[in-house]
# Entry
Amino acid sequence: MLYAGLDCSTQSLTAVVIDTDVGDVVCRESVPFDTPFVASGSGEVHASPVMWVGALEEILARITRQIDTSRLRAISGSAQQHGSVYCGATPDTLTRDFSPIWMDTSTARECDEIEAALGGPGEVARLTGSRCYPRFTGPQIRRFARTDPDAYERTTCIHLVSSYLASVLLGRHAPIDHADGSGMNLMDLATRQWSGTALEATAPRLRSKLPPLVPSSTMIGTLREDWQSRFGFSQMRLVAWSGDNPCSLVGTGLIREGQLAISLGTSDTIFGLMRAPRVSDDGTGHVFASPLGDYMGITVFRNGALARERVRQELGMTWDAFSAALRRTPAGNDGVLMLPWFEPEITPRVDAPPPVALTSDNATPDQRARAIIEAQAMALRLHSAWMGVSAGAIHATGGASVNPEILQVLADVFDAPVHRFAAPDSAALGAALRAYQADTGQPWTDVIAGFVTPVGAPTEPSPTHRATYTSLLFSYQEIENSSLRLTRPPAAERADGGSR
Ligand code: XUL
# Structure
């Protein structure tokens, strides 16, 4: 049998088709977006749902040319999390042309208002798994209801990117799965139902505008009839779509607590399975329902690939030259550190980043290259400690995971072996595996076997660097704290009492 997984990420739509008879990926396709998003000065970052649908049609057409469509049994999907799509009575009608996506930072006011109404950030985190974050869907919906109340009134159904694309395939409004639904500040994580108090604190009559919540393995129907004949997929079954990080959990084989994945993509993320929902005291990171039925902890950094690219380009280096610079410089970079906030940052929250500076004015180009990579690795380590998962192994994915020098820095900073997973598209693979599991009901260990295998030998941590990074981590935390004190106004002037 064949199963397809699609992933609508920030930059492209990717498809992976797996053949469960031969235990391999048999088709991989990607459609890049010409204009992935448009950013405005006020922190708004919007993308076009019409563009996503165009890519969906293009990728289905490409798949049909490569596989025996009569063997394709089910399809599921993954999408960038938190983004919201505003529809009329059917998914084909939009009440808002553009969709705010996860990079949007325009809702600080709404976050403060919702947290105040729900008893503070800690309460919101305990209820929904995360304190309010500007990119989360609830604050975004509240801003839309305030800034365009007429269009909000005309909206019949508010989707996540995942449930919207599932709806387009289904031809009617699809449900939201528990895992992606956890990224909205609207779902009660304990009951996996919409939280009445969170809905009320967010926007008027919101319950009537949200689709139902379902487990991630729910079969939601079959491909709409006109697309069945158009693409030649007869009766193809659709499994609920989910967020890219929950899908990557499956696509990187994290089916046990104690393994952590680091995805080095547009955003850098660190995540792992949790049997119990531990919420961080200071509101760092998020707890989501996992597509396996348990929970997952995740911390997200906005300054990922774009920050690495920016430093590389400023230094005028190719990636090979950048890697050579990492090889020439020692672990710990002779104490040269940087804070990697070129754009507003999610973790820690920095709405207006100070100009990026190094701790040494005379840093060489090589030291600058190492400084960004070490800073990102230390931020990953520091801001994932709240999960309480001691990393026995790191599974690395995403564009930059092909770089052995970057993997060595991660291994040393985490003092754990790093296994690289071939599929840079772990979210699409995870979606395909979810379709397979939902269709057959097989145990997860059997589902991932053969499909999720590390490439080559792991990158081992060097024992001689352990002490260097233990003390560098401490220095990094110090400069992060002192910079945060400078970028944030004193507590008395802040609506949230300075807790953010
Ligand atoms: C997760 C997050 C990002 C997006 C983009 O909370 O904001 O990882 O899912 O892919």
